[in-house]
Design a protein that fits this description.
The chain is α+β, with helices and mostly antiparallel strands. The chain has two domains: 107 residues, no CATH class; 273 residues, paralog of FGE (formylglycine-generating enzyme) (Alpha-Beta Complex). The protein is 26% helix and 15% strand. Helix 6 crosses helix 7. The chain starts with a helix and ends with a strand.
Length: 392
């Protein structure tokens, strides 16, 4: 992960580049910062060695950027220019989402800290409720992606029709308690549940359980949460599992990971053939519908948000944990890179797996049923879990 202070100044540099220089035609505040905070020139392992701005200097810099952005905002024509970058405020939405995505990245970095750790003051999530095992999604076409969401990224476009056979999908993400059964059954020691690459990685990395779990004896487990230990809550969605672990569990459980098309249909489509912006409909996320924005600092128990259920009966498809799918990150038919290749296009291919739905740490402004996240199959420190699917 990056030093937190790198993320902090990078957020400001990205905002300066797009909202001051590109949108408002301003000159650079300090051109020497562009190289240091370019994520593609400096991979994460190299960033600690850079001559980074210190915390005070970084805060001063981002305050100056934000002040100038606010000063120029009233002069920016968001409609009359016809420029795609400005139409509908797209570039502002892109920068807002970028900042929130780094907020989540910084929380994932904080999750790596040791004792005495960080104990966030956050209210507990609502209590869980009974959830059916899985639900049937009937065969038929649906509209995948979007042409209507003003702030949607290029990889979410264009909207296109996908015709799927019937399938079943878990009504809720896999819980810690259920995942414990896989561990107790020797799932990490049985190569038949794993892909060849997954088994090789399980051996090389000596995977024994999800990241941050620790066996306490007598069948009990604890987890490290922001540098301090707590009993493992059995009714919460499992998190900090990589794609290989999720895929192995799914095969052990007699299923598979859903494709991202299956996930999006279960989350956004209705039996009446209507595309929903959110699983529950068109209304914005609320505290009664989804666990988002870092408000709880943890996943909520399964069944905690009955007001957020999708048309087919799936719970917690937005928020709580990112959900691994079986799909590689590939462009949709008719994809056009915008506004820069490095956001999506350079990552297309079999090296990255798609995650959907957003986590408890994701902002409501940075997730939706069409939003596509992606990461390496080995990544565990992100707030990722999964649900299983089966052929009908």
């Amino acid at each position: 992960m990056s030093p937190l202070v790198w993320d902090l100044a990078h957020i400001g540099n990205f905002e300066e580049l797009w909202l001051l220089r590109e949108a408002a035609g301003a000159t650079a505040i300090d051109p020497s910062l562009d190289d240091m905070y370019d994520a593609f020139r400096h991979p994460r392992p190299n960033r600690p060695a850079l001559p980074l701005l210190g915390p005070t200097e970084a805060r001063r810099y981002i305050a100056e950027v934000r002040g100038r952005v606010i000063d120029t905002l009233e002069q920016v024509d968001l409609e009359g220019t016809g420029l795609p970058l400005l139409t509908g405020g797209f570039v502002y939405g892109m920068v807002v989402q970028h900042e929130h995505q780094h907020d989540e990245t910084m929380l994932a970095t904080l999750q790596l800290m040791g004792e005495p750790g960080y104990r966030p003051l956050a209210p507990p999530p609502p209590a869980g409720s009974p959830v059916p095992g899985d639900v049937l999604v009937p065969a038929g076409p649906f509209t995948m992606g979007t042409d209507d969401e003003a702030w949607a990224y290029d990889n979410e476009r264009p909207a296109h029709v996908v015709d799927l056979p019937a399938f079943r999908i878990d009504a809720a993400p896999v819980t810690n308690g259920r995942y414990m059964e896989f561990v107790a059954d020797g799932g990490y020691d049985e190569p038949r549940w794993w892909t060849d690459d997954g088994w090789a990685w399980r051996q090389k990395a000596d995977l024994q359980a999800p990241e941050f779990w620790r066996a306490e004896g007598g069948g009990r487990w604890s987890r490290n949460r922001f540098g301090w230990r707590e009993d493992l809550p059995l009714d919460e969605p499992v998190q900090h599992v990589c794609w290989y672990e999720a895929d192995a569990f799914a095969h052990w459980a007699g299923g598979r990971l859903p494709t991202e098309a299956e996930w999006e249909k279960a989350a956004s489509w209705s039996p009446e053939g209507v595309k929903r912006r959110w699983p529950w409909g068109e209304g914005d996320p609320t505290a009664e519908r989804a666990n988002l924005g870092g408000a709880r600092f943890r996943p909520a128990p399964v069944g905690a948000y009955p007001a957020g259920v999708s048309a087919y009966g799936c719970h917690q498809m937005i928020g709580d944990v990112w959900e691994w799918t079986s799909s590689d990150f590939e462009p949709y038919p008719g994809f056009v890179s915008f506004p820069y290749r490095e956001y999506s296009e350079v990552f297309f291919g079999s090296g990255y797996k798609v995650l959907r739905g957003g986590s408890w740490a994701a902002s409501p402004l940075a997730v939706r049923t069409t939003f596509r996240n992606w990461d390496y199959a080995i990544r565990r420190q992100i707030f990722a879990g999964f649900r299983c699917a089966r052929d009908a």
